[in-house]
From TrEMBL:
The keyword Phosphoprotein applies. This is Response regulator. Keywords: DNA-binding, Phosphoprotein. Residues 134-199 form the HTH luxR-type domain. PROSITE patterns: HTH_LUXR_1, HTH_LUXR_2, RESPONSE_REGULATORY. The keyword GTP-binding does not apply. Residues 3-119 form the Response regulatory domain. The modification 4-aspartylphosphate is found at residue 54. Signal peptide: none annotated. SUPFAM superfamilies: C-terminal effector domain of the bipartite response regulators, CheY-like.
Length: 201
């Protein structure tokens, strides 16, 4: 039996996935979680062969959880399953050690095949997204620029951002200015939007 862990914050979607995948004769759902910070503890308890992770989860993102799983449970293959088919997310997922990346609008049969393929050591990536990621190029933002932009998401002031990321206001302004330039936008909110659309944050 192929043991699966499902991480999805929407209860109905998680239940539907578990039901559909549970119909496969060789699949066993050993864990279901709705929060990112529960992924690694539950995986260590249940030892799944494959973890199906959403990206945007409360507590810890699926991408961060994928990286943590690679450290804590290297035998567990990670398949990212998301609504957000963004090129930057795909790159970050591959860097985190994910074996596959699919968007949720595909048929469940395709997902079952993908699970078996990643378990066999293959990489499974949505073809349209792979092409978009290649044309989009790498993330131009440095880790510090990403931190500052992430802190600016809710329209925070420079002083708020500085306090949150433990930098001086002048340094925050420099990072924001650099990020605005790299995203070819006019202000920090446009930079945040562009970075999110590309999956860089």
């Amino acid at each position: 039996m192929i043991k699966l862990l499902l991480a999805e914050d929407q209860g109905m979607m998680r239940g539907a996935l578990a039901l559909l995948l549970g119909l496969e004769p060789d699949f066993e759902i050993v864990a279901q979680v709705g929060e990112g910070d529960k992924i690694v503890p539950r995986a260590l308890e249940t030892r799944p062969d494959v973890a199906l992770l959403d990206i945007e989860l409360p507590g810890l993102s699926g991408l961060d959880a994928a990286a943590a799983l690679r450290q804590e449970l290297p035998g567990c293959h990670v398949l990212i399953l998301t609504t957000f088919g963004r090129p930057g997310y795909l790159r970050r997922a591959m860097e985190a050690g994910a074996s596959g990346f699919l968007v949720k609008d595909g048929p469940v049969e395709e997902l079952a095949v993908a699970v078996r393929r990643v378990l066999a050591g293959e990489r499974v990536i949505d073809p349209g997204l792979a092409a978009a990621a290649l044309s989009a190029g790498p993330n131009p933002l440095t880790p510090r620029e990403r931190d500052v932009l992430s802190a600016a998401v809710d329209g925070a002031t420079v002083a708020d951002i500085a306090a949150k990321v433990h930098l001086s206001p002048a340094t925050v302004r420099n990072y924001l200015s650099s990020a605005i330039g790299k995203t070819q936008t006019r202000n920090r909110m446009e930079a945040v939007r562009a970075a999110r659309q590309n999956g860089w944050l």
